[in-house]
Amino acid sequence: MADMTTKILLFIMIVSILSFGFGFNAEITFVTLALMNAIRLPVTFFFPLAVGCIAETLVTMKRVKDVLMLEEKDVESKSFINDGRPSGTIKLNRYSSSWSKKESKTLTLKDINVNIEPGELVIIIGPVGSGKTTLLMAILNEVVQVSGNRVVSGRTAYTPQEAWCYNGTVKENIVFGREFNENKYERVIEVCGLQRDLKLLAYGDETLVGEKGISLSGGQKARVNLARAVYDDANIYIFDDPLSAVDSKVANHIFHRCIEEYLHSKTRVLVTHNLQFLNRADKVIVMKDGNCLAVGTPQQLINSGVDLSSMIGEKKEEEKSEKSEFDLRNEDINHNEDDEIDKTAQDYDEYKESKEESAAMGTVRLKVHLKYYGAAACRWLTVVVVVVSLCSQIMFHILDYWLSLWSDSHVIDQSMKVMNESQSNSTNITTESVPQASRYIWSDQKNNIMFYSITMVALLIAYSIRFLSNIELCLKSSINLHNDIFHKLLRSPTSFFENNPKGRILNRFTGDVGLLDQRIPLTVLDLNGKFGIVIGTVILTCIVNPYLIIVCAVLFVLSLPMRKIFLRTARNLNFYYPLAKSPVFNTVSTTFDGLTCIRAFRFENQFEDQFMVFMNDNNACYYLSAVLSRTFGFILDWFTIVFFAFLTGLLFTGSHVFSGGEVGLVLSSALVLLNEFQFSLRWLSEYETQMISAERVLEYTQLPSEAPLHIEETKPPNKWPSKGFIIFKHVFLSYSNSQPILRDLCFEVESGSKIGIVGRTGAGKSSIINALFRLVEFEGLITIDGVDIKQLGLNDLRSKLSIIPQDPVMFEGTIRSNIDPYDEYTDETIWNTLHSVKLADIFKAIPGDISAPLSENGSNLS
Question: Which residues form a coiled coil (predicted)?
Fold first, then answer.
C-alpha cells in the first residue's frame, strides 16, 4: 500500500491545481513525483517501522523491568556464613520461613531448632508434605527467612528429590565442569553403584543423557545426580530421598559404600522413608506440618516414645538384615541381566540423540512453495491474489503513462492557444502537428479529471484487495500448518520426543511458525509489489526508448551472479540461525529446571557463560545477515546508478527528440528503479531464505504417527475390560531397531491379582508397561479379557487403563482438574479418593482446597 502514497498525493496535487484554474506540465508533474518518491520510503515505510519498533521496545523494556523487579534471593546471605565454627556446621535457631516475601504470613517452617555438627549423619523423616524438603531448602537458602538465625559453614553439594540432568554426556553431568580426576571419578562411580550401568551403555560414560536425562532410567538418573554431588569436594552433603528411585540392594550399597564409608568425614543430611537406615544415623529429625517434632539419636527417640513408623505414614515392618531372603532372591534375578538392557540403557539407535537438528541445505525446492500456498486450502483465494495483482500492477503503470500523455497534451494545448493568438505568427498549429499519442487525451479537462479520478479509485480498490488477499492467503497457510504440525506432534510416537529436545520443538513453534505468521506475509506482499513495479518500469522505459532494452539486459545479467552469491550466503546464515536459537531455549529450560542444583553447586556463573556463548552464536547469525543485506544493497545501488547514467545519456544524445512528458516519465521511473530494483532482489532473497522456515515446518507435517485412535471394526464392548485378565504370549519388544528388550516374554495375570515386577535398573520393567499401553509397538500377542490389544484403537485401549508413572506429571491448572481432567466425577467422589491416598487433610488445609491452583509440574507441592 505504500506504493500508492505517491499516486494519491500526486492525484490531490493535480486535481487541486486544475480546480483553481492553474495549468500543469511535465516539469511540475514529474519533478513533484520524483520528490515524492524520494520521501516515500522514509515516510511510509521507515517511519511507521520506527514507531512500531519504539512501541515494541517500550513493551520489551516493561517486561524486562518486570523480571528485574521480581523478588530475589538475599545476595548477602548467598555465601554461606562462617562465624568461626568448623566447616560442616549447620545451625537453625528459632528459624521460620515462607516461600516468598509476599506470603510471609504463611509459614512453611515454624520455629525450627536444629544443630548439626561436622561429620554427623542426620536422617530427616516425616509424612508427605511435612516439610522435609523445605528444611533442606532452608539449609540451601532457597526459602525466605522470616525469623530466627541460620548458620551454614562450608561448601554444600545437593541431590534433588527429582533427579536433574542437562543435555550432555554422563561424565559431563557427574563432573559438572570441575577439574577431572580419573581416580576420584572411578571411585565415585563405584560407590554410587554406576559401574554396571556404564558398562551396559554402548558409549559408556560418553553416552548423551538427552534432555532431562531421557535416555536414562529413573534409578540411573538418581545415581548420576548422587555421583555429581559426591564428586564435589564439599563439606556438607544434602540428599533429598535419592534412595527411593533404586531397589533395596542398590540402596544398601549406596548407603553403606557411599554415605557411610566414602563420605564418613563429611556432614550428611539425608531425607528418606527407609526405616532400616535409621539406626545407623547419628541423629534423626522428625518433621510434621512444618514443625520439628523431635530431634535426637534413634535410641533417644525410641526411649521418648516416638513412633517412627507412623511419622512416615506407613505400617511399621520388621527390619530385615542387609542380606535378607528377598535380597538373595534379588541376586538370582539379577545374575544374568547383562544382556537384558532396557531402552534407557541402549545405544539409543547408534547415538541417534547426538544428531544435529535437520534443515535442508541448498535451494528451497518448488514443492515447498506449492505446499506452503496449498496449505491455505483455498483455491479461489489464490486465483484472486494472482488476478488482482496483475490487474493492479497494469493499472499502476498505465496511469503513469497516461499522466505523461496528459501533461504533454496540456502543454501543447497552451502552446497552440498562445501561438494561434499571436499576430506575428502566420502559421497556425493544427491537430496534424499534435503527437498522435496525445490525441487520446480529452480536450475537456473535466473528462480527463473524471477519468483520472475513476482510475485512481479503481487502483486504490485493487491495491486494497491485493493487500488483504495476500495477507489472508499467507495467514491461512500459517494457521493450517500450525494446526497440522501440532496435531502431528500430539500423535507422534514417544521415540520422537526422546530424539528431539524440548527447545528444538519449541523453536519450530516459536521461531519458524512465528516467522510464517509475521514476516512471510509482508515479504510476499512486498515482493509482489516490488517485482511488479520493476517489470512495469522497465517496460515503460523501453516503450519510450527501445534501445534501453540493451541497458536493462546488461543490468539484469550483471545482477544475477551478485544475487547468487548473496543468496547462497544468506541461505547458509538462515540455515544456522534457527539451529543457533535452539540451544538458547534448551539452556533456559534446563537452567530453570535445575536452578536449585546450580545454586547449591555455585555454578551460576558457568551457566551464565554458557548461555552467553549460545546467545552470541545466535546474535552473530542475525548480525552477519544484516551486514550481508546492506552490502548487497550497496552494490546494487552502484548498478542502478550506472543504469541511470546510461539512461540519461541515451535520452539526451540520440537523434530522436523526446517530449517533456516522455523524459519526465523515463527519469522518474528510473529514480524509482534505483530503489525498487535493489529492494526487489533483496526481498526475493529474503523470501527464499524465509521459506527455509516453511520447509522446516513442513517437515513436521511428515512426522510419523502412532496407530489410529479408533478402529470401528474392532471397537471393544463398552464394558470391556470386565475382568482384567491379561496374557503376554511370546512378546518381543525393541527400540529403534535395536536388539529386543523383551524376548519371548510369556506370563498371565489373573483377574483381580496384584503383581509385582522386580529387576535391576535396565531389566525391562518399564518396557512391559510400554508394551501394555502400546507406547512402543511390539511383536507377539497381548490380550486383555481375550481381546488382542494390537487390534484396538489407541484411545479405545488407553482410556481403559490407568497408570502411576515413574516420573509424576502435573499440568498447570487446579488440583481438581489434575485429578479429574474431563470433569466426570463429583466433589464427593474426588474427596473419597483423596482420603484413600492420605491427601484429603493436606488439601483441606490449602486455601481453596481442590480448587487451589497448581503450578507447572506441580512445583508448589512437595
Answer: none
Reduced 3-state DSSP string for 337-385 = CCCCCCHHHCCHHHHHHHCCCCCCCCCCCHHHHHHHHHCCCCHHHHHHH
Strand partners, 745: 731
What pLDDT digit, counting tens, does each position of 129-149 carry? 788 888 998 898 888 888 888
From the list 590, 596, 599, 680, the residue with the least C-alpha distance to 633 is 680
> CB-based contacts of 413: which residues, under 8 Å, 6+ apart?
443
Long-range residue pairs from 358-364, CB within 8 A, at least 24 positions apart, any chain: 358/699, 359/575, 359/578, 359/579, 359/692, 359/695, 359/696, 360/692, 360/695, 361/571, 361/572, 361/575, 362/571, 363/571, 363/688, 364/688, 364/691, 364/692, 364/694, 364/695
Q: How far apart are CA 500 and CA 214, in angstroms?
A: 10
Sign of CA dihedral 75, 99, 243, 257: positive
Tell me the domains of the chain and their CATH numbers.
80-155+236-251+265-316 (3.40.50.300), 161-233 (3.40.50.300), 362-416+437-700 (1.20.1560.10), 712-798 (3.40.50.300), 813-858 (no CATH)
Q: Is the peptide bond before 86 cis (omega within 30 degrees of 0)?
A: no
Q: How far is CA 58 from the centre of its chain?
A: 24
- In one-letter notation, the amino acid at residue 742 is L
Which range has the worst mean pLDDT, 476-490, 537-551, 624-638? 537-551
How do residues 793-813 score in pLDDT, each as one tens digit? 999 998 888 888 877 788 888
What is the pLDDT at residue 582?
A: 77
- Helix, strand, or coil (residue 745): strand
* Cross-strand partners of 150: 92
Question: How would you label 252-284 residue by residue, b for 16+ Cβ within 10 Å and e otherwise?
Answer: bbbbebbbbebbeebbbbbbbbbbbbbeebebb
- Spell out the SS3 assignment of 472-512: HHHHHHHHHHHHHHHHHHHCCCHHHHHHCCHHHHHHHHHHH
C-alpha cell recorded at residue 278 = 535409621
Instruction: Specify the pLDDT at position 230.
Output: 92
Strand pairing category for 90-98 and 144-152: antiparallel
DSSP 273: -
What gap in Å lies between CA 810 and CA 162, rounded to an integer? 14
Give the separation between CA 569 and CA 631, rounded to whole angstroms.
12
Phi/psi-derived region of residue 286, left when phi > 0, alpha when psi is between -120 and 50, beta in every other case = beta
- Nearest by Cα to 457 from 526, 524, 541, 399: 399
Q: What is the distance between the alpha carbons of residues 851 and 841, in angstroms, rounded to a whole number?
A: 14
Asked whether the predicted pLDDT for residue 378 surpasses 90, the reply is no
Rg (Cα) of the chain, in Å, rounded? 38
